[in-house]
Amino acid sequence: MYQLWIGNKNYSSWSLRVWLLMQVQGIQFDEIFCPFEPLETRTERYKTFSPSGKAPCLQDQECIIWDSLAIIEYLAEQHPQVFSQDRLARAWSRSVIAEMHAGFPHLRQDCPMNCTLDQPFTELSSALKNDLERMDALWQHGLERFGGPYLAGPDFTAVDAYFAPVAFRAQSYHLPFSTASQQWMKRILALPEMQQWAADAKQEILSQKPCMD
Fold this sequence. Notes:
8% strand
């Protein structure tokens, strides 16, 4: 069975991507939680299971795969349902996943994932607006081209998992998106697996707070 190392559920968007994909698609794995704290020893602790010193990291017997994009592609070799069965939808999915993996720096900087946060923006920077508009256009394109209700067609696939952290971000920061994109995010947030992740994230935060008499 696979072993998947992940970071804190409240903050680790990269861990969420792989965890959610495997959970929704029924790919069995053992979850191993390695918290971010304490910061001063994180890299060395993480290097005990991940060559990069980062999470997520997947182990499949003697094979170790790190980085969320590499993990998803590795899983796709053994589980065809990871990507759409439609060739055009697969190509589109890989393109937009790569863009998400390497891009949208202002969204990452200004809106770090925090599942338990409720903090609306009073004003969006032009750079953040550009990131959001580009992402909204990608989602609308996928939904229209492949017919929904998921980004690459009727089934939840890797591209949905890859953008799922943005649904948490949009909820936390009240980010503006088109009606079509909001409907997709609502569907993603309603997944039992997303609700479980959010509940676990909340429990993480509660467990960090000192008890008060």
